[in-house]
Design a protein that fits this description.
Blueprint (H helix, E strand, L loop, with lengths): L11 H9 L3 E6 L36 H16 L3 E6 L9 H12 L5 E6 L6 H13 L1 E9 L3 H6 L6 H13 L3 E8 L6 H14 L3 E6 L2 E2 L3 H7 L8 H14 L5 E4 L9 E3 L6 H15 L12
Parallel strand pairs: 1-2, 2-3, 3-4, 4-5, 5-6, 6-8
Antiparallel strand pairs: 7-9
Length: 309
Amino acid sequence: MNPFGRKRYLALDSVMKNEFCGKTVKIPLNAGFSCPNRDGKVGYGGCSYCSNALSGEFAGNPRESIATQFEKTKALYLKKWGETKYIAYLQAGSNTYADIDTLRSVYHSCLSLPVVGLSIATRADCLGEDVLELLSEINRKTYLTVELGLQSSSDETARLINRGHTYAEFLSGYNALRERNVRVCVHIINGLIGETREDMLRTARDVASLEPYEIKIHLMHVIKGTPDEKRYLSQELKTLSKEEYISIVCDQLELLPPETAIGRLTGDGERSTLVAPLWSVDKRSVLGSIDHELKLRNSWQGKYYTKGT
């Protein structure tokens, strides 16, 4: 029986409302961090889908202070939602990839803002012992979530997208955070080059077995200037249709633990740089179609989930 009501999945928005007694939104920020998959530590060029903005198209300007970025975006959110509560979201780049003093300074700058929490996006291979100690310290002070990009649990896919680390390395970073009671959000992408439907469902099953606090499911966007744009134009890479994507997402939701918050079910591509799929710009339609499909199936998040498998 559907335990979620109308939505049929555990939306992060609902979790935040219960946690903070009201609407709570993330404000994306850009601290100017790089990535070990760009500067040569593990690779060059970054992941095949990643733009020069390092997945921070909607984050702020790194040449401005964290406080300035926050206030600018807050002003826009006030027009949309009115007064809400905020979580500082370090989105662009690998936000645990710097010397420990720089990280501490940036994190404390975020916590000095009028926020109720901090969300840090990074890679699982950027979690040294000193970073883990700092994250443990921050976790004791505020509502902390660390977002780890997995994208796919297939090592072959990781090779094709130039991910720069294996699934085993991801698990090492994930488990290190969980051992320290840090909330972890796992990020996966549907439609990566070479992946079949079963590959994407296998990733969902693998993530489900980890029982993460949160998951973000993203659509693979083809962005101008990336290696995947060349693959797309040469027809080496094909993007998912809207119908395919919706069906796969609903299959994945059925496999996930009902306690895992759903932070995202689609993606926001920057229109000026988005090559494909163009249907993805209508986010409301995609989310509405997912809701409709779950209703048609009489299904919900966790319907086919079995703990411990």
